[in-house]
Specification:
Elements lengths: L14 E3 L4 E10 L2 E8 L4 E7 L9 H15 L10 E7 L2 E7 L4 E2 H8 L3 H20 L12 E5 L7 E5 L6 E2 L4 E2 L10 H5 L5 H16 L7 H5 L3 H7 L6 H5 L8 H10 L10 H12 L11 E5 L2 E5 L3 E4 H7 L9 E7 L5 E5 L5 E3 L5 E3 L3 E3 L2 E2 L5 E2 L3 E6 L2 E7 L1
Antiparallel strand pairs: 1-2, 2-3, 3-4, 4-6, 5-6, 7-8, 8-9, 10-11, 12-13, 12-23, 14-15, 15-16, 16-21, 17-18, 19-20, 19-22, 22-23
Length: 406
């Protein structure tokens, strides 16, 4: 049954038409600040569908809001899709705004911390992974502005050395200074001093909140300003660092060997003066050094792709696009806009994953191009991470990429 737009909430079984696809509602997952559904796309893919409750007619800045949302979508598509939620399309229907995203089975970091109560080794793994994701997002010029454990989604994946993937989600209130885009927000118990003052919110504000998350991970669930939340003095305590207890003091010298130095980094991340906080890159490098999580000597440091007599060196996670193949190798006609991804996990292992591609597509001039799924050593790797050995072949149609891991 097609949604008529009369009811505020879509019902199970109703179908909604987007720009590219149609979506049939399977289940209402949450009805809070926005309405969230699990839906089935017309090609059979499971979708996380988010409906904004505020109707277009009630928003004076609707045009600016839409410009912001679609500019954010275009920016997010440039980030490695293994570290952030996959966004398929944003669209409007019957005066309401929707987001269609990939549906993932897993749980958020808050549930992992307070319900699963993981051991120290697992918590430290989350520290380096989440901070590494924030570093990658910041390098693309994106400020999340609403970080909290609930925004990191943990997805079980036995094909990866860590046993799980971590994604940063919900960029609805992010900031992109280079595009002059800004709709910042903050959750009460995770806000930075800049959020409280409603002034100078920036990359450094993400660092403050990330410091709180790391503190909470290492302590197994104790927030650095939990005492302030209990007595309703969070804002003043944050601004004056009232009642803050460093991790070193909290553990009274009982931190695992080599981790005492992390207390200094967290103290700096939580400095009320944003000018004294490290960048995400600085904090990530220092914590990696402390945790000694650099790849072991037998793990390849980089990947080289060779094709058509030319080569490309890959030293970190990278999405291989039509434009990259065109500029590097030249043989790009059978390569889609986003063909496959080379990913390096936190343990130093490398993986390849193919993206969904259409069989054909036309360019602006009406030329028809034929596309193919990505194979690694003869196996289809569409939508799954497969570990790269020291040598192999990635194949896309008539294009072969010789893979060398060194």
């Amino acid at each position: 049954m097609q949604w008529s737009g009369i009811s505020t909430t879509l019902k199970e079984g109703e179908t909604l038409q987007g720009k590219k696809y149609s979506y049939t509602i399977d289940k209402i997952l949450n009805d809070g600040a926005s309405i969230v559904y699990r839906a089935k796309r017309n090609d059979g893919k499971d979708i996380f569908l988010k409906q904004f409750k505020e109707p277009i007619s009630s928003m004076d800045d609707w045009d600016d809001f839409i410009k912001f949302q679609h500019s954010v979508l275009n920016t997010l598509l440039q980030l490695p899709q293994n570290i952030i939620e996959i966004n398929y399309e944003y669209f409007e229907s019957y005066g309401v705004h929707f987001h269609a995203k990939a549906f993932e089975n897993g749980k958020d970091l808050a549930k992992v911390i307070w319900e699963d109560k993981p051991d120290m080794e697992t918590r430290l793994n989350f520290v380096t992974t989440t901070l590494g994701i924030l570093n990658a997002v910041h390098k693309k010029g994106v400020i999340h502005s609403d970080l909290k454990p609930e925004q990191f989604f943990i997805i079980p994946d036995s094909s990866i050395g860590m046993g799980h993937r971590v994604k940063l989600i919900d960029f609805d209130h992010c900031m992109i200074p280079s595009l002059n885009l800004s709709r910042p927000a903050g959750t009460a118990e995770w806000r930075s001093p800049e959020h409280i003052k409603e002034s100078n919110i920036g990359f450094h504000s993400d660092i403050f909140t990330m410091g709180q998350i790391i503190y909470t991970l290492i302590t197994g669930g104790r927030q650095p300003y939990k005492h302030s939340l209990d007595r309703d003095s969070y804002d003043s305590d944050i601004l004056n660092r009232e009642g803050y207890i460093s991790i070193d003091t909290l553990f009274k010298g009982a931190l695992p060997k080599g981790l005492s130095d992390i207390s200094d980094i967290i103290d700096q991340m939580l400095d009320p003066d944003y000018m004294k906080r490290p960048t995400a890159e600085e904090a990530h490098k220092r914590i990696l050094k402390i945790f000694n999580t650099k790849p072991k000597s037998d793990k390849p440091e980089h990947i080289t792709l060779e094709s058509n007599g030319k080569s490309r060196l890959i030293i970190e996670t990278q999405t291989i696009t039509r434009e990259i193949v065109k500029s590097t190798f030249g043989n790009h006609n059978e390569i889609y806009n986003k063909q496959f991804e080379i990913m390096k996990d936190n343990s130093g292992d490398w993986f390849v994953k193919g993206y969904d591609v259409p069989p054909t597509a036309k360019d602006a001039k009406g030329n028809v191009y034929h596309f193919h799924k990505t194979h690694y050593n003869g196996s289809d790797v569409t939508n799954k991470f497969v570990k790269i050995e020291h040598a192999g072949v990635i194949n896309v149609g008539n294009v072969d990429f010789i893979v060398k891991a060194k």
